[in-house]
Predict the 3D structure of the following.
Amino acid sequence: MKKIAVLLAVAFAATLISGCGSNVRVEITNDLGAWNIEEIFVDPAESDEWSENRISDPLEPGEVAAVSVPAGTYDIMLVDEDGDSYTRWDVEIGSDGYNWGVELSDMD
């Protein structure tokens, strides 16, 4: 019983802390022409690894995906249907959010 109370207290504290800062939108527009974007990763710049893919369905040409994150510095990587990657490093995302219309010229 004591463990459950501790776990609930920790979960409650984490909820309070995460709610202290408001999230902002990161919008990715697929401007790749005929290629779908299959994966979107948005992670804090200090992270050593990419986290999980932020989209469940491919982003078709012309479509926009939005990811919600706290303001900060992020690395953003996209992967298209051919496995090509498009990466922006150390992106400052402020209270206005961030928009990236990814084009073929952005390929790594």
